[in-house]
Specification:
The chain is mostly helical. The protein has one domain (4-187, 215-407): Up-down Bundle (Growth Hormone, Chain: A). 78% of the residues lie in helices and 0% in strands.
Length: 420
């Protein structure tokens, strides 16, 4: 990754993860003011949060297929334009209905993005670079999580919550232009690529492959990864949607202070994403065992997150809870790099479609969890209930991770030789 072209491609993808996650979670920071301004209940706010996840889940699969067919260059350009338009639109909403539709549009734009980015990385990277690449890109996503609360809080304080959405929409437009003019689907066609960068790249994953995706056997092979990703997604959506409101309501902090505490927790995720990718790739280089490299880190992430989230049940001290949540989020984010590397390990040729189906589990969790959490808060009046209720999902995720088997490559039987 020290060569200029591959390094810059990775950098531009990292910027996309940062911008798209800011656009995704900006609502959670602005939510307390928007809730009052638009007259929404916690349940209605939960519905607005979940609106993003409906098309996001659907377009994981459709978008991953689109990335495999059209190529990452065109697909991600279209995605960024939709994200920009929907983010600006959010600044214009006047009630639940328009907010719900704006978040639906954002989900359509972001749904294909990460599976398609995985296809781009699969085109450009060797197997022993994938964990690091997935770790650093998702670290930028978590940096977006961390930067969003104080950044949005400052814009709201200086201008209004509507202006914050306008500014972020413009940032997505700028990224779309940068991506379209710099990236190439096939690294061999990039004007700045060197011969050294092409060594070891999987020739079967270059853009231009138009073979039909073997959906039924591929989905069956990826299903364990999808179920594991659902458990991870349940936890992440909890943090993304409710963390700023948790600090604001449970500990009676003002918007700026709750944003700072939320940012501190999210910064722990930045470190977790990076560490997870580095550790996974180092295990792979040392042992040559892809199952050990991916699964051991995933299981450690689930179990570590469980151990540090457990004290929230018994402790109410603000700083102790903040530290526990930070450590729990750090361990949860160890999962990201290896689980996103798994579709590339299993089937680099269909990595866009495979990672899209995997992340369908994440999107499905985003549909269910915000509404469940919002109802639980309205019913109990307690903002810690969603965190307490999520402990079982962490243990389930650790168990499901053992069924993934990334060392078993997917074989397209349509191309297998017929025995004589």
């Amino acid at each position: 990754m020290r060569k200029q072209a591959s390094r810059l491609v990775l950098t531009v993808i990292c910027l996309m993860y940062f911008i798209f996650y800011v656009d995704r979670v900006n609502l959670s920071t602005a939510a307390p003011i928007m809730q009052k301004d638009l007259g929404l209940t916690a349940t209605e706010l939960g519905l607005a949060f979940s609106a993003f996840a409906y098309p996001y889940a659907i377009f994981q699969i459709a978008g991953g297929w689109l990335g495999d067919r059209l190529g990452p260059r065109m697909t991600l350009t279209i995605c960024a334009l939709i994200v920009a338009a929907s983010t600006i639109w959010t600044g214009l909403v006047g009630g639940l209905a328009s907010l719900f539709v704006a978040r639906l549009a954002l989900g359509i734009g972001e749904g294909p993005a990460f599976p398609t980015a995985t296809r781009a990385l699969s085109n450009w990277l060797r197997a022993d670079q994938r964990g690091f690449a997935q770790g650093i890109t998702h670290a930028f996503a978590r940096f977006g999580n961390a930067a969003t609360p104080p950044m949005i809080a400052m814009i709201i304080a200086a201008f209004s919550w509507r202006v914050s959405f306008y500014a972020l929409g413009v940032a997505s437009l700028i990224w779309a232009v940068l991506w379209f003019f710099y990236f190439r689907d096939d690294p061999r066609k990039h004007p700045q690529v060197t011969a050294d960068e092409l060594v070891g790249l999987p020739t079967s994953t270059v853009a231009g492959s138009r073979k039909p995706v073997p959906w039924r056997p591929l989905l069956k092979r990826i299903m364990p990864v999808t179920l594991t990703d659902f458990c991870y997604g349940w936890i992440l959506w909890l943090y993304l949607n409710w963390l700023p409101s948790f600090f604001l309501h449970e500990y009676k902090l003002d918007l700026k202070k709750s944003a700072l505490f939320a940012a501190g927790v999210f910064f722990a995720g930045v470190i977790g994403d990076t560490v997870g990718g580095i550790v996974s790739d180092r295990i792979l280089r040392a042992s040559g065992d892809v199952a050990k490299a991916r699964i051991s880190v995933i299981v450690a992430g689930f179990l570590g997150s469980f151990c540090f989230m457990l004290p929230i049940v018994f402790v109410h001290d603000l700083f102790v809870v903040a530290i526990c949540l930070s450590m729990a989020f750090f361990f949860a984010e160890l999962i990201v790099a290896p689980i996103w590397a798994v579709p590339m390990d299993i089937t680099p040729e269909y990595s866009g479609s495979a990672s899209g189906f995997m992340n369908f589990g994440f999107g499905l969790a985003g549909i269910i969890s915000p509404v469940v959490f919002g109802w639980a808060i309205d019913f109990t009046g307690r903002w810690d209930v969603p965190f307490i209720g999520s402990l079982g999902m962490l243990l389930l995720g650790a168990a499901l991770a053992l069924t993934i088997h990334p060392q078993k490559r997917f074989v397209d039987l349509r191309e297998s030789p017929v025995p004589a």
